[in-house]
Design brief:
By secondary structure, the protein is mainly alpha-helical. The protein is built from 5 helices and 2 strands. It has a single domain, classed as 434 Repressor (Amino-terminal Domain), CATH 1.10.260.40. The chain is 44% helix and 9% strand. Helix 2 packs across helix 3.
Length: 88
């Protein structure tokens, strides 16, 4: 069995990076409005707007699944991990 290192979140690190939701760019490239996506996934404009503008605190996996299905994309197209900045 290969011995691999894993980082602990219980260290003194206070910057874990962030997750960026790339929805606004995808919608813009495909010329799809927030209203159209909201209607297609069975939710309201406000929720789609919050996802598109990265104003979501807790992500709903069911909503992400619906978005991926309707836009025919992968979760990796929607969610981008941005690593923490190196501290000097």
């Amino acid at each position: 069995m290969q011995n691999s290192k894993i980082k602990s979140v219980f260290s003194s690190v206070d910057d874990f990076g962030e997750i960026y939701i790339n929805l606004d760019k995808i919608l813009s490239e495909r010329n799809i409005t927030y209203n159209r996506l909201a209607n297609s996934i069975g939710t309201d404009f406000d929720l789609v707007s919050r996802y598109a503008k990265n104003k979501i605190v807790r992500t709903d996996l069911n909503i992400l699944s619906r978005i991926c299905y309707v836009l025919d994309c992968d979760v990796s197209d929607l969610l981008i991990y941005i690593p923490p900045k190196e501290k000097k």
